[in-house]
Each structure stands twice: as structure tokens, then as C-alpha cells.
Amino acid sequence: LAINFENITRKLGLEYIIDVPNSDEFNVKVYLDHDMYETIVFNLCSNAIKHTWSGRIRIHLYLEHKNEQKMIVLEVSDTGVGIPKAILPNIFQRFYRVESQSSRSHEGAGIGLAIIKEFVKHHGGDITVTSVVNKGTTFKCWFPIGSKHLPINQICYNNEKNYLINNDQKRSKKQLYLEENLQWIQNYSSSIEDNIINNCNADIDKSDNIISSSSTDPTNNSLNIINKKYQILVVDDNTDMRNYLSDLLREFNVICAHDGQDAIQILSRLDKLPDLILSDIMMPNMNGYKLLDTVRSNIKTQLIPIILLTAKAGEETSIKGYEKGANNYLKKNHFPLKN
Fold first, then answer.
1. Does 307 reside within a domain?
2. pLDDT at position 72
3. Mean of all residue pLDDT scores within the chain
4. Do residues 333 and 311 touch, judged by C-beta distance below 8 A?
5. Whether residues 165 and 18 fall in one domain
6. Position with higher pLDDT, 38 vs 75
7. Are both 226 and 279 inside the same structural domain?
8. Where is pLDDT greater, at 171 or 300?
9. What are the Histidine kinase domain coordinates in residue numbering (predicted)?
10. What number of CA atoms fall less than 13 Å from residue 80's CA on the CB side?
11. The CATH number of the domain where 19 resides is what?
């Protein structure tokens, strides 16, 4: 799983170390939910890249005892910007964001680490973090060996048929995280961005029945839209937030875009325009305000309701959005928690 980020880290000039012994060296059985474990690995690796500007990232898998119990440890360490000691106890809280952090992304949702902790706890494990500002951060995920800690009805064995059924979803999840990371190595000049914006209105008027292949929908319903009454376009550059919103809105058709530019491309290819657009504000390539301007300036899309999402909804930010035609604002930390 971790090797998927190798090319990205090389292009960013980072040393990327994967220290995973052969399975014969462990000689133990660990029961894991494949989808949850994949999310854990992708999230921690992506976070390390996001906050590391120079030096190295190391992924290490090894055996260790904790509380007199033999466990397997997934350790992801980096030489990044680090996290202040005073706020370390809060980073696993939902929607808690480290405001002062230097990051490659525009605005974190503050939800990824909370989900990771839930997934690790679901396995009867634990997650710890140590960090020093300007020196780096280390996350450790502890997974118990064997199955005695798990309810019997939760234990199952690898099944080839189930694997084949879920394989497309696994590829989709991997693509989501890789696309988010690839945005950090793409340099769009201001002239290119301006050209994109000027051409967006023309793009919307084009008739095409195929949805953009760059859209990032975790359930692949951007390619196979289920016939539900209402359709919502979610626009956010944060993979975890897109996944979270898609799950909350699962009773609707949800199509996802990773920035404003991607959203415009999707709108130009839809047979039926969405009944609502939920858009983050701070995004690369085209932010929420520019997306709002483009949608409102086109006669075909100008009546679509648009709700702006942000982790920082001050009065000044709200006024700017309303002046540009937003129907409403939502703070990300006001979303309900999932059970």
C-alpha cells in the first residue's frame, strides 16, 4: 500500500523509506478489515507528505509488546514541520485543526485522524503520536495479534469472490489519495488559471454525456449514477472530507470533484444538473469563490443552490460569499458525528 506514494515523494525531493519485513519473519496472524487498514495507511502516508517539505518519510512495520500483549506496529514517521506539544492531545478530535501548521494543502478538514483512531480502535488497537516542532512527527498504530480480542461474529477469512467484488472500490480509494497528493506537485501559473476561468462558461454549454474521469467519487457513482430523486455535487480538495460528506449524503446521488476546475468540467458533462452544490472555499486551481462566480455568470447553471463549506466561517468570509451569490454557509465542525 505504502509503495503507491513512492513516485510522488521522489518528485517532491523526499527520501521515502519502506521498512516492511517479509511475512515469513513475522510468523503471526493479524486480523484486519482490508478497507479500514487501507484507509489508515493511505491517510498517514498522505499526512506525512502534506507536512514534510524536506528530509524523509519512513514507513515501518514490526512486532512489539505493549501492556504484556504481543502486537504488530505500523509506524509512520517524518521530518516535517511537527506539531506543538500543547495541542497533541487534541489532534484526534473530529474537526480539530492545527491553525498554525505549514501544509501543502489549502485547508484541512480536521477529520482524517479522528477516523483513523476509530478504525484502529475497531481492531482492538491503539494509536499514539509524538512530535517535535520543526523536527518531525511519528504515528504508531498498534494492532493485537490473533483474534481473541474480537467478537466472533466479526471474524471472517479471506474470500476470493469478495476480494474481486471490492477490488474496484479499493482502486478508487487509492486514486482519491493519490490525486490529492498529485495536486501538490502540479504548478499552475496564474495565466493558466485565468485562461481556465475564462473558458469555463464555454465548457458548461458543451453537451456531453460522460462525466469527467478526474472526478473523485469514493463510491464510483460519478461513473454510474444511481437513479435517486436528488443529486448533489460535493467539491472539496480534502479526500477525507469528500468521503465523509458522501457517506452523510448517501440517500442522494453524490458526485465528487476535487476542486473548482474539476467541478466545472463535471457540470459541462452532466445530462441533469445537480440540485445542490456543496463547495469548500480554499482549494487549489480554482477556489470556491471563483467556482461560485463561474456558476452564477452562466445562464445554464446560475440558479443552482450553492452552499459554501469552510472550517473558518467568520463574518467577513460569510459576507464575501453572500455577495458573490452563495445561498448559505456551513461550518465543517457543525456536521453530525457518525455512529
1. yes
2. 92
3. 76
4. yes
5. yes
6. 75
7. yes
8. 300
9. 1-147
10. 29
11. 3.30.565.10
HSE, side-chain direction, 13 A CA sphere, residue 316: 1
Backbone angles phi, psi at 254, to 5 degrees: -115, 125
How buried is residue 121: exposed, middle or buried, by Cβ count under 10 Å (0-12/13-18/19+)? Answer: exposed
Q: Kindly state the cell numbers that stand for 137.
A: 512527527
For residues 269 and 130, state if they share a domain.
no
| DSSP code for 89 | G
Chosen domain end from 163, 184, 205: 184
Answer yes or no: do 150 and 236 share one domain. no
Same domain, 257 and 321: yes
72 with 203, same domain: the answer is no
d(CA 143, CA 243): 24
Helix (H) or strand (E) holding 130: strand 126-132
Choose among 140, 118, 5: nearest CA to 60.
140
Tell me the one-letter amino acid at 155.
I
pLDDT at 212: 32
Q: How many Cα atoms sit within 13 Å of 68 on the Cβ side?
A: 0
Give the number of C-alpha atoms closer than 13 A to the C-alpha of residue 30, restricted to the C-beta side. Answer: 23
Domain that holds residue 207: 188-334
Last residue of a domain, one of 184, 211, 245: 184
Same domain for 177 and 320: no
- 147-184 pLDDT tens trace: 777 777 666 665 544 443 344 444 455 566 666 666 65
Are 139 and 120 contacting, i.e. CB atoms less than 8 angstroms apart? no
pLDDT tens digits, 104-130:
665 555 677 888 998 899 888 999 999
Domain count, the chain: 2
As a whole number, mean pLDDT of residues 66-85 equals 90
- 339 part of a folded domain: no
Task: Please give the Cα distance from 247 to 100 (Å, whole number).
Answer: 29
Look up the CATH number of the domain holding residue 326.
3.40.50.2300
Distance CA 126, CA 120 (A): 6
| Structural element, H or E, at residue 72 | strand 69-78
